[in-house]
Amino acid sequence: LVSRKWRVQPTVLDLGDGVTIGEGSLAICAGPCSIESEAQMEKVMAHLLENDVRLMRGGVFKPRSSPYAFRGLGMEGLKVFHRMARERGIKIVTEVMQVSQVEEMHDYVDVFQVGARNTQNFNLLDALGGVDKPVLLKRGISGTIEELLSSAEYVFSGGNEKLILCERGIRTFETASRNTLDLNAVPILKAKSHLPVIVDPSHGIGIREFVPQMALAGVLAGADGIVYETHETPETAASDGAQTLDFDESARLIRNLRRVYQLR
Ligand code: PEP
Ligand code: MN
Q1: Residue 59, ligand 1, Cβ within 6 A
Q2: pTM higher than 0.80 for the full model?
Q3: Is 96 in a helix, a strand, or coil?
Q4: Which of 83, 108, 122, 214 shows a CA-CA span of 20 to 30 A to 184?
Q5: How far apart are alpha carbons 227 and 243 in whole angstroms?
Q6: What's the topology of domain 13-62+69-263?
Q7: Which residue minimizes the CA distance to atom 1 of ligand 1?
Q8: 145/147 Cα distance (integer angstroms)
Q9: pLDDT tens across 69-125, in order?
Q10: What percentage of the chain has pLDDT greater than the value 70?
Q11: ipTM of the complex
């Protein structure tokens, strides 16, 4: 069902209030790795609005390698995130980690993110197949393109056709970067599937100073959108600061993304 053979027309998701994801426009989604506080969200949202970006990412349930690392503000944080975003006309993308969260998060999210560690959590995918909100599905840490499409098929066949595929880098033998951003996946996914494809250069390379060029390369590779991490002071971010852009870098990237998109 997610194949181009089944549906030739590209799928374009309408999130309302003029925010769309899919062919015909470039979706830009930015925000911190983790939602940390009202003050932090206030600053990020102001930055996004100044740059005419109305899709914000930010995790409240964080999958961390260490149990001692910051694991997110949970539902309390999500409720504040949602209220502040609504007040400003911003749509939110946030990670759901387990089946039981789908229902409690439902009314407070615009897009459910499935993280790379959960791409093959088939129970979670089944649960998301039954909701009426878009799902941003990340490629698994060591997942093949075919496996990503199979995971998308779970959600789609469950009845939820609002899906976005995300290339976020895979684990390879290379240790010079956090992950290996597989830009090959972009044209391949676009050819194989009618679903929108976006690129996450932040997790893809994991090195702040190189995030912008990989984001731009993602657009040239044919992505329908880019999702990346930004924070007022990346040095103090609760998670992923080393791959997070400050607002100046972010504003420059947004300008360049739009320029490069025009060249396609
Ligand atoms: C994130 O988006 O902050 C995240 C945890 O991403 P991934 O699942 O791709 O590692
Ligand atoms: Mn992150």
Answers
A1: yes
A2: yes
A3: coil
A4: 122
A5: 12
A6: TIM Barrel (3.20.20)
A7: 33
A8: 5
A9: 999 999 999 999 999 999 999 999 999 999 999 999 999 999 999 999 999 999 999
A10: 100
A11: 0.99
